[in-house]
Amino acid sequence: METKKELTVSAIENGTVIDHIPTQALFQVIHILGLEEYKEEVLIGNNLDSKKLEHKGIIKIKNKHFTKDEISRIALVAPYATIINIKDYTVVEKFQTEVPSHIERFVKCANPKCITNAEKVPTSFDVVDKVNLKLKCHYCEKFTTQETLAFIK
Amino acid sequence: MSNLKGRNLISITDFSKEEYIQVLDIAEGFEKNPKQPILSDKIIASLFFEPSTRTRLSFESAANQLGARIIGFSDPGGTSVQKGESLHDTIVMVSSYSDLIVMRNPIEGSSRYASEVASVPVINAGDGANQHPTQCMLDLYSIRKTQGTLENLNIACVGDLKYGRTVHSLVQAMCNFNATFHLVSPEELKLPSSVKMSVKNAGLKYYQYTDIKDIVPIADIIYMTRVQRERFPDPMEYERVKDSCILTASMLKGCKPNMRVLHPLPRVNEITVDVDSTPYAYYFQQAQNGVYVRQALMSAILGVR
Description:
The structure holds 2 protein chains of 2 kinds. Chain A is mainly beta. Helices cover 14% and strands 35% of the residues of chain A. Chain A has 2 domains: 2-96, Alpha-Beta Plaits (2-Layer Sandwich), CATH 3.30.70.140; 102-148, Aspartate carbamoyltransferase regulatory subunit, C-terminal domain (SH3 type barrels, Roll), CATH 2.30.30. Chain A has 4 helices and 9 strands. The termini of chain A are far apart. By secondary structure, chain B is of the alpha/beta class. Chain B has 2 domains: 12-131 and 290-301, Aspartate/ornithine carbamoyltransferase (Rossmann fold, 3-Layer(aba) Sandwich), CATH 3.40.50; 134-287, Rossmann fold (3-Layer(aba) Sandwich), CATH 3.40.50. Chain B has 9 helices and 9 strands. In chain B, the strands form 2 sheets. A 5-stranded parallel β-sheet of chain B has the order 7-6-5-8-9, with helices on one face. Chain B has a 4-stranded parallel β-sheet with strand order 2-1-3-4, sandwiched between helices.
């Protein structure tokens, strides 16, 4: 049975598998990584059975390898996702996402009075709490949390 | 001694404890001799994107007394800002016309951004509800002047401790000086937990009260702020608590002889006029001290002191 579940989404020869994505975060992960624009094969599965999460999302991206910095961005919405790098159908690297200590450009400041929401100023945050996500805006010094987290389109 | 030449002052955390003291020491010199033409070859841009009385006049008086020339505006109406020019473009342009920019803007974080795009130093004269570091420095100057020290004092903060940025900055700055904090406010306007956390992280203590009378005998400084009616969703609630944060002369019986009352001004009714004639009132001198502190900051940042 286990083998059959694994085959729900087919294996890839070369690329990245992002596993254990919380189901509600799947589309955010796609957006954060800019996969809407990616021209090669992307396999997306959601609400799959998972021993770890009960239900999970999974994304397989052909011929694409992310830097740790790129991948760390998704930790904001999928803190326990597993990143698997594959070459010639073989797992060459496997690691868990980790929230970075500094974030630029892709998270929106939750303070509507912040300069980054008034003019075209790229956002910049220090992560002051990685466990209970808390980001301090470099400009207005206000906090953005998991509850107020939004991404720049 | 740090070299403050070319530095920006955007947030109270931009300067170290030693650097605050350095600025206060320079300010003391200007209090003794405020009219010195040491900035006569400098142009200071005073950009006030929203109205201000004390801060703008105090900066401009400070600059004038040092012989600097001032360009700028006290209201963005009639400038290219009103035509839709971005802050970025305004600041880049003004940088090329001046040696130092003093800016007030209601948009939070605007001063930090301005300091990143300007080719000359920027002093934040208030960015919305965020920071107003020169107010904090003049508060520190006033505390040191009236108490002879900044160390080991009992600092009472009264009124709107939730939204009052001057209180947040003062508490954070006084965390460097082993203060004990006494916080008097209506339940709805208590100090935010992030500021209380700064006190805890510094290993210091704070106590919370709802009645001003409780802190009068213990305070070295009573820092008053205005409780604004519009902060209360329910007008009845405002009526119920508004008198708990009003200081009158009769309430000052039993205070320490060294105690002084500070207020960032403008005051409305939270300090009754009869307090003005007591030896404890210090808020007008406090505003005057703003000139010396701003003279010190401008001359240090321009590398003249």
